[in-house]
Design a protein that fits this description.
The structure holds two protein chains of two kinds.
Chain A lengths: L3 H13 L23 H12 L22 E3 L9 H6 L13 H19 L9 H24 L23 H16 L19 H16 L9 H19 L10 H4 L15 E5 L4 E2 L16 E3 L1 H5 L11 E4 L7 E3 L16 H6 E2 L4 E3 L5 E3 L25 E2 L13 E2 L3 E5 H16 L3 H13 L11 H15 L6 H7 L3 H4 L2 E9 L5 E10 L14 H6 L1 H5 L6
Antiparallel strand pairs in A: 1-4, 2-12, 3-11, 5-6, 7-10, 8-9, 13-14
Helix pairs in contact in A: 2-4, 2-5, 4-5, 5-6, 5-7, 6-7, 7-8, 7-12, 8-12, 12-13, 12-14
Chain B lengths: L1 H16 L3 H18 L4 H9 L6 E9 L9 E4 L5 E3 L5 E6 L5 E5 L6 E4 L7 E4 L9 E4 L2 E4 L7 E5 H4 L18 E5 L9 E5 L11 E4 L2 E2 L10 E7 L2 H4 L10 E6 L8 E12 L9 H14 L8 H9 L11 H5 L4 E13 L3 E13 L7 H4 L6 E14 L4 E17 L7 H11 L14 E3 L7 H6 L2 E19 L7 E20 L4 E11 L5 E7 L9 E24 L2 E16 L5 E14 L3 E12 L8 E12 L4 H4 L4 E15 L12 E5 L12 E6 L8 E14 L3 E17 L18 E20 L4 E18 L23 E3 L2 E4 L3 H6 L2 E2 L11 E3 L7 E2 L5 E3 L7 E11 L2 E11 L2 E3 L21 H6 L23 E3 L2 E12 L2 H5 L5 E15 L20 E10 L1
Parallel strand pairs in B: 1-7, 13-16, 22-25, 41-43
Antiparallel strand pairs in B: 1-4, 2-3, 2-5, 5-6, 8-9, 10-15, 11-12, 13-14, 15-16, 17-18, 17-51, 18-19, 19-20, 20-21, 21-23, 23-24, 24-27, 25-26, 27-28, 28-29, 29-30, 30-31, 31-32, 32-35, 33-34, 35-36, 36-37, 37-38, 38-45, 39-44, 40-42, 45-46, 46-49, 47-48, 49-50, 50-51
Helix pairs in contact in B: 6-7
Classes of the chains: A alpha+beta, B mainly beta.
Chain lengths: 573, 1049
């Protein structure tokens, strides 16, 4: 019996050992949101999170595709070949309130806005003590919010301005869509606040900070939203005051940026797109305002069939884009328009010096920097020159019928961004996306000023600045406001070809029904080794030009949850 | 009555005075243990002395038999009014020394009518026991205890070992299908050792974890580990009163498995051997080479492309006159065996004495796989699919003294599951089946003349290679489950009080050995530019990949699971005249540890208070109070009460004389039960925010970024099910029993992601912690009709029919209401869980004009062509798009399940049959064996063509195409009714005559043959699948023909 108490106690305590903490299993290694802003580095990391929602642009649509492939500037060879590709889906009418072939930026941009709001709500009380970091962080977050809103409303039209993080109990159902003017005002306010923030630099001067937003970016964002606000899509009454505001905004930006030569147009349009900008206090590239850092991309994609190992042709320039390049000698447009809806019968401008039998001579140098055409020559890198051969049987021949995603469907290949000196299939194009550059401010200004006040000398100066850099003659004097508008639109098209401007420009100008019904190409036929005949043909005929395509649909989920979004869903959706 | 109240109050006071009583009880038990141990040497003598004071005793020698004159062993024989008793031996004989010459013997055995025999004039009584048809005195297993069947107020159902053993299936869960009203079992794969079966009790009540909890001898364990030979009974608990004691874990129902224990005083030794053949009753059967080439050409020409096979090639495929260049391979024939072998051995020993009883089982199960493998010799390893399981169980009961008993259950198995390495080293059968079905019949191979892998084109996967050349995977798992417990009668406190405690430790180590190897693969080239001597195109092989034959490369993973459980309970059971009271208070705590994860802990109390008056009026209160680590501190414990009652009308005076009615009982229950198994994500009540690398700018936050995985929901709680059950039990003519249950359940607090938070909130739904918001209503009924009749000495018949129905509806799913131009504005709310949606097919488009005149088919960006589906424009807006999606059929969990078990015996022969079926079930079958993406099957031979359409021939499939098309999407062509009826089991047995065996000292030999999944009738448009399977990537369900012999010594 002596042993009994010990024996009993062992069992007793093993039962009693089920202590009160039995169900308290605190996981290790997790921090809470509150732990973020009491630490300087974590606060910085949160700003990285806000930046993390930055769209990726460039070749990041579906599988290494360009947005231009679904604009009238180009046709993507994936159409008919890769059924899940953006372009194939887009022309197959796959855009619906619950499917966006271009990618669901609605969600990611709102995520950016939410994170910017969380950051702004906490930054004042954050434990950030080094220098004027806190002020700069704040300006950047404000600017990110403005930028994300700009990208959002371009695509979906005005959406409510949210400047605080949502409370979990927030009643979304009471939200209402504002006017475009309201949202413009909010974006401008954020930009102005950043511009007025002394801690925010005008430009990035160290490589480490590449891709962060600056005052220069603030001017660009502000100018762009004002331009949208004044454009026909959002200014149906053509209120001149809106154009004036856009003009002022662009001018203000131009003045601030070009003062003292801080920003200026880069000398060579041709090489500008092949390299990342150099970052320093006194860089060679003084044109780039904001560069979206991206990884490198294999040279195999968006390539040409005569290059070994190429994978797909990607977006190939359209005949309409090619027609938009002026003649270099005269400075005149070769094609004034089309006699037919289908763009097969061009109205040739005899004064331009254009020779339809020899269409690729004496064109705007930007043409040669952007388009691989039949007869163009590239150096394969080993000293062997290759002449582009798009005719039937040529090394780079047109092949429209499936299953070829390797060949152009238009008769052209894309040259811009793709460094022709990269020979080898494993080589990489290391290219960031030049989201904002100075040329945009010039052309924003020219367009807005022309609409507000007609073709004033300031308008000429702005457009000619762009043309001069491209070694093109100045615009002829005495253009009417309408003629100037055409010239500016054409200038925008060629200057920003494949830079994702055109896709949005035709929407804000509300000319989608004129530009996107038909897209054509030109097939060269070989007569002799050096002479060719050219035949225009329809590359695609679609119905993505209807007015509902001016705006993207608000995603079904939100249109279902928020009554006003459902009631005021974008027209046609 | 006065006395009863005193006792009850006394007891209640004692119990509630201090929960520590549980611990005290344990101490008391230990004292007794110690005492028992201390006097071990003289225990027997002491008890004997105490129980049987020296008086004159009178020896009685008798025999117990059933109505057929067959000896009954293990029957308890007790001298009435004393503790003096014994059990009958194997030949039915017993001997007992009685104290009183006028003694009366009480003879009782489960399943037989209790009998009392006076020995006044007969010291060698022969006692015949009558079989009890409606055995209401029979004890049935309930949560944490047993009850007499008559006193059960909840909804439960059970089956016994005999029925379970009629199924040769390797997995016990599979053999439950069709047996238990209210239980639905869906077998998801037939792969040896990986034959997962989903179980549902009363359908689906939640969108989270829907499976019931499974307790083996009171502890949560896996059914997989159980050998059917070890099982005494399987009971399912369905309503609130039977599951409330499980509290926060019981809402999906409970399956209780009770293992066998020793009974007889004479050792019983049984050996059984079974051998079976398995085959695949349903299998994807691709078309032959000629049909394949013809259909491929058809698809290409339909697309306006040029055909892939020339007329010459087609002729060769047809004539089979150039098999080298134009092969026609039946890959199923090449890679599958006709039958795979299966065998099972069991050795069971049970017996006992007054002080110790034991049940010991040792078993072996060997199950082979269907895929043909190369012999071990050249490979040096065995890649076959197979399962070897060695298991044992030892259940020991000790009666340490009059008041103290102890038990020890130890069971374990070692299981080896072998399979080819396949494509990735895991889930080999998936790739083997997928790539096998993808391989057209005109691919050459499987081997080159040198014995290396041969394929038709670069990058093609060879099923043969995946089986035979990729290496192997061997999963060795061990499992030990052990429970030790003691029970102490506490009559010294008050009569009828007892205490029990149990500790359990289970471990499951798993070791995965992965032995992969590289192999050569060659591609056949037929060169038309180079003619051989016979004038035909030359054939040569080139490497199809960069692979080379390599030795095995060994790697592995391991996992370890342990479960510890402590239970302590106080029981009270006493009868005062016509009042009968029993109660239970139980504490339990469990900790489950899986690999490196933080433990899964739970703790709680359960209680049961049952009272009945005269076995006529029954009342019961059950409750669970428990919680787990899933929830925040303040919301950790939930209380789940249930009340129930029953009225045995047949015991009332007015029915007592109705001789036809054996039993008429009404019962009802209402209560709350919880479900804390809310899916995979844990600790939802805590934020999960992390700093990770790869931030946007290296200049910010050291290049890190903040990753928000979860924002906490501190209010997180369990689901609450409010369950109502009404039951009727009727017994007639001592042969018919009918039992009907109606139930209704409303499940609140279902944890769901917020559907009505818009995308613009800025955080992904996965980050916003789910909230207890969903509501599901589930109602239905179960009917069980049994008929049991013994016609004469030789003939008897038994039929058990059951049907169950459970229909759920999501009352609230926090789902946004789609805009008014949608034909159906919800996808979940108001529908059953898992309701399938898709487009409705009207017909096949006949012509381009018809397409032009029809609503625009905007179902995903593909242009319609003649021969494509014309979908219905439900909204009438001229466009078929997602607005026109409609609910189609049901979900993949059946609403009706039924079973019909028939048994007949004639003399020494017996026959049992089980039909089992389900309906109101549908599956989306758009994959291999149905669609035309990878290979063709019979239905594609009757695809739409203008010719077939114009001739009015039957059309089984839309236009074949090689491109994306509007046909192969969710629609009512591919969502099919998956109802079926099966002949699930059939068994015929023969018992060798006893007189033949008695000389051999063998008590019985039974030989039998049975089968599993013998016949299936279903409504699927193809016979390429078993209707239970929902995918083309599952190892098909097997059919088994099985033969066996049982020998009892």
């Amino acid at each position: 019996m002596k042993k009994f108490p010990i024996y009993a106690l062992v069992i007793f305590f093993s039962l009693a050992g089920c202590n009160k903490k039995f169900l308290d299993i605190t996981p290790n290694g997790q921090i809470t949101l509150n732990d973020i802003f009491n630490d300087e580095n974590r606060t910085g990391a949160y700003l990285n999170r806000v930046y993390g929602h930055m769209p990726t642009y460039y070749w990041n649509y579906f599988f290494y595709a360009f947005l231009s492939g679904i604009s009238d500037d180009a046709h993507d060879s994936d159409v008919g070949n890769e059924t899940s590709s953006m372009a194939h889906q887009w022309f197959g009418n796959a855009l619906t309130p619950s499917n966006d072939p271009t990618g669901d930026t609605y969600t990611s941009l709102w995520a950016g806005i939410y994170d910017a709001n969380v950051f702004l709500a906490n930054i004042d009380g954050a434990n950030v003590t080094t220098g004027n970091k806190k002020m700069r962080y704040k300006a950047e977050a404000q600017l990110l919010r403005a930028f994300y809103y700009l990208e959002l409303v371009k695509k979906y039209g005005p959406l409510p301005w949210i400047d605080k993080p949502f409370d979990p109990k927030f009643d979304y159902s009471q939200l209402k869509r504002p006017s475009f003017q309201d949202i413009t005002n909010n974006i401008v306010t954020d930009c102005d606040s950043a511009i007025g923030n002394p801690a925010l630099p005008l430009r990035i001067t160290s490589d480490n900070e590449r891709g962060r937003l600056t005052k220069a970016a603030a001017y660009a964002i502000k100018s762009e939203v004002l331009l949208f606000n004044a454009s026909p899509l959002w200014n149906p009454a053509n209120d001149a005051a809106k154009w004036q505001a856009a003009s002022n905004g662009a001018k203000e930006g131009l003045q601030a940026l070009t003062a003292g030569g801080a920003f200026q147009l880069f000398g060579d349009y041709g090489t500008y797109f092949l390299h990342n900008s150099d970052v320093s206090a006194a860089p060679l590239d003084r044109e780039t305002i904001f560069e979206r850092p991206l990884g490198s991309v294999s040279a195999l994609i968006n390539s040409i069939p005569s290059k070994p190992g190429m994978m797909k042709a990607g977006s190939c320039p359209s005949q309409e884009l090619v027609d938009s390049y002026d003649m270099q000698t005269t400075g005149e447009p070769p094609i004034l328009g089309y006699q037919d809806d289908q763009h097969l019968q061009p109205i040739v401008n005899p004064a331009s010096g254009y020779d339809p039998g020899n269409p690729f001579v004496n064109r705007d140098p930007r043409f040669y920097a952007t388009v691989w055409y039949n007869g163009a020559v590239y150096d394969m890198g080993n000293g062997i020159l290759h002449t582009m051969a798009m005719y039937a049987g040529g090394a780079d021949q047109i092949l429209q019928t499936p299953p070829s995603r390797r060949n152009t469907h238009t008769g052209y290949y894309l040259r811009k961004f793709i460094d022709p000196t990269i020979p080898d299939q494993n080589a990489q194009n290391s290219s960031n996306w030049k989201k904002f550059r100075l040329a945009e401010l010039y052309l924003n200004y020219a367009e807005a000023e022309n609409e507000a006040n007609g073709p004033t000398p300031d308008v000429y100066n702005a457009v000619n600045a762009i043309r001069t850099r491209a070694t093109m003659p100045n615009l002829p004097a005495g253009l009417s406001q309408d003629q100037m508008r055409d010239r500016i639109r054409k200038e925008r098209r060629v200057e920003f070809a494949f830079e994702e401007e055109r896709f949005w420009d035709v929407r804000r100008w509300k000319i989608l029904d004129k530009t996107d019904k038909f897209v054509t190409g030109m097939e060269p036929a070989k007569i002799t080794d050096t002479t060719f005949s050219f035949k225009r043909f329809i590359v695609r005929s679609t119905n993505v030009w209807q007015s509902k395509f001016l705006l993207f649909p608000i995603p079904l989920k939100d249109a279902s949850i928020i009554p006003d979004f459902g009631k005021n869903q974008n027209p046609g959706w | 009555m006065r006395k009863f109240d005193d006792h009850a109050n006394d007891l209640l006071r004692r119990i509630f005075k201090n929960v520590l009583l549980v611990k005290l009880v344990v101490i008391a038990m230990l004292i007794n243990t110690f005492q028992a141990a201390a006097f071990r040497g003289s225990t027997k003598e002491k008890i004997d002395l105490k129980d049987h004071p020296v008086v004159n005793t009178m020896p009685i020698q008798g025999r117990v038999m059933n109505e057929n004159g067959e000896p009954l062993s293990g029957v308890s024989i007790i001298e009435k009014g004393t503790d003096n008793g014994t059990y009958s031996a194997a030949d039915g004989s017993f001997s007992l020394n009685v104290k009183d010459e006028n003694a009366v013997l009480v003879i009782s055995n489960v399943g037989f009518v209790k009998s009392e025999v006076s020995i006044k004039n007969n010291r060698t009584p022969i006692i015949l026991l009558a079989t009890l048809q409606n055995n209401m005195e029979e004890a049935v297993v309930v949560g944490y205890g047993k009850q007499k069947k008559i006193s059960v107020t909840g909804a439960i159902a059970s089956i016994q070992t005999k029925e379970l053993k009629q199924s040769p299936a390797a997995n016990l869960a599979v053999s439950l299908a069709g047996r238990l009203p209210g239980l639905t079992a869906i077998q998801k794969s037939g792969e040896p050792g990986r034959d997962i079966t989903q179980l549902f009790i009363r359908g689906q009540g939640t969108v989270n974890v829907q499976s019931p909890i499974i307790l083996v001898d009171g502890i949560e364990r896996d059914l997989k580990s159980i050998d059917p030979n070890e099982v005494e009974s399987v009971t399912i608990l369905k309503d609130a009163s039977s599951t409330a004691v499980f509290g926060v874990r019981g809402a999906n129902g409970v399956i209780l498995v009770t293992t066998r224990r020793g009974k007889s005083e004479v050792p019983e030794i049984g050996y059984s051997f079974q051998a079976g053949m398995q085959d695949f009753p349903n299998l994807i059967k691709p078309v032959n080479a000629f049909d394949y080439a013809t259909l491929k050409n058809l698809a290409l020409t339909n697309d306006g492309l040029s055909p892939a096979y020339s007329d010459y090639a087609l002729e060769r495929y047809k004539l089979h006159d150039d098999p080298l260049r134009y092969p026609d391979n039946d890959w199923n024939k090449i890679n599958l065996k006709k039958y795979a072998f299966m065998q099972r051995h069991n050795l069971t020993i049970s017996g006992g004495s007054k002080f110790a009883k034991y049940f010991v089982n040792a078993g072996y199960l060997g199950q082979g796989g269907q895929f043909r493998t190369e012999p071990h010799q050249p490979l040096g390893y065995d890649p076959a699919f197979k399962l070897d399981r060695y298991s044992f169980r030892s259940n020991i009961d000790l009666q340490l003294n009059k008041n103290l008993s102890a038990f020890l259950n130890v069971a374990g198995y070692v299981e080896k599951v072998n399979s080819p390495w396949g494509a990735t080293g895991s889930n080999a059968s998936l790739y083997i089946i997928a790539f096998g079905n993808d391989m057209p019949a005109n691919v050459p191979g499987p081997l080159t003349q040198k014995g290396e892998i041969l394929v038709g084109s670069a990058g093609q996967w060879s099923q043969y290679a995946l089986i035979n050349r990729s290496g192997y995977v061997k999963t060795t798992s061990g499992n030990i489950t052990s429970s030790y417990g003691m029970e102490q009668k506490l009559n010294f406190i008050t009569e009828g009080l007892s205490a029990k405690a149990m500790v359990s430790f289970d471990i499951t180590p798993v070791n995965n050995l992965s032995a992969a190897r590289g192999y050569e693969s060659w591609m056949q080239v037929i060169d038309p530019n180079l003619k051989g001597a016979d004038g035909k195109d030359s054939i040569y092989n080139v490497p199809s990949n960069a692979g080379v034959n390599t030795p095995l490369s060994i790697s592995g993973t391991r996992s370890f699971t342990s479960l510890s459980n402590v239970q302590a309970s106080v029981n009270y059971a006493r009868v005062f005249n016509k009042h009968s009271l029993s109660s239970l208070l139980l504490f339990q705590q469990q900790s489950l540890i899986i690999n490196e994860q933080l433990p899964f802990n739970s703790r709680g109390f359960a209680t049961r208070w049952a009272y009945n008056y005269d076995s006529r009026y029954f009342f019961e209160f059950d409750a669970g109070y428990n919680g787990s680590e899933q929830f925040a501190k303040k919301r950790r414990y939930g209380f789940f009460p249930a009340v129930s009652g029953a009225w045995v009308i047949s015991k009332e005076k007015f029915l007592k004389d109705a001789s036809a009615i054996d039993l008429l009982k009404l019962r009802g229950s209402y209560g709350l039960v919880g479900n804390d198994r809310l899916g995979g994500q844990r600790f939802l009540y805590l934020d999960d925010v992390q700093l990770t690398g790869g931030g946007y700018s290296p200049s910010l936050g050291l290049g890190q970024t903040v990753q928000i995985n979860l924002l906490k929901n501190q209010n997180l709680q369990w689901e609450v099910a409010k369950k109502t059950d009404l039951g009727l039990e009727l017994g007639l003519f001592n042969s018919v029993t009918l039992s009907v249950d109606l139930f209704r359940e409303r499940r609140d607090n279902i944890l769901r992601n917020r559907g009505t938070v818009p995308l613009m909130n800025g955080l992904p739904i996965s980050v916003l912690a789910p909230v207890n918001i969903g509501v599901v209503e589930n109602k239905g009924y179960e009917v069980e009709l049994d008929y049991q009749k013994k016609f004469d000495k030789d003939w008897s018949f038994l039929a058990k029919l059951n049907m169950s129905y459970a229909r759920n509806r999501q009352l609230y799913a926090d789902e946004p209401l789609l805009p008014p131009d949608y034909a159906y504005r919800y996808r979940e709310t108001g529908y059953r869980i898992g309701q399938q949606f898709g487009y409705l097919v009207d017909k096949y488009f006949g012509s381009e004009q018809e397409i032009q005149l029809s609503p625009v088919q905007n179902v995903g960006g593909h242009t319609s062509r003649p021969g494509d589906f014309k979908y219905r424009d439900i909204t009438g807006d001229g466009v078929v798009d997602q607005r026109d999606m409609a609910p189609i059929l049901f979900s993949s969990v059946p609403e009706y399940s039924f079973g019909a078990a028939l048994q007949a015996s004639y003399k020494n022969f017996d026959l049992s049959i089980l039909f089992q079926g389900v309906t109101n079930v549908s599956n989306y079958y758009m994959f291999r064996g149905t669609n035309s993406v990878s290979n063709y099957v019979a239905r594609h031979l009757e695809s739409w063509t203008p010719e077939r359409a114009s001739k009015g021939l039957p059309i089984e499939y839309p236009r074949l195409t090689t491109q994306a098309n509007p046909n192969e999407i969710m629609n009512n062509f591919f969502i099919n009714d998956a109802s079926y009826i099966r002949l699930k089991n059939a068994e015929i047995g023969y018992n060798l005559p006893a007189r033949m065996l008695s000389r051999l000292r063998i008590r019985g030999i039974r030989i039998f043959a049975n089968g599993f999944n013998l016949m299936t009738w279903d409504r699927l448009p193809t016979k390429n699948f078993d209707p239970e399977l929902t995918g083309d990537l599952s190892y098909p369900i097997v059919r088994i023909y099985n033969f066996g012999i049982n020998v009892n010594f």
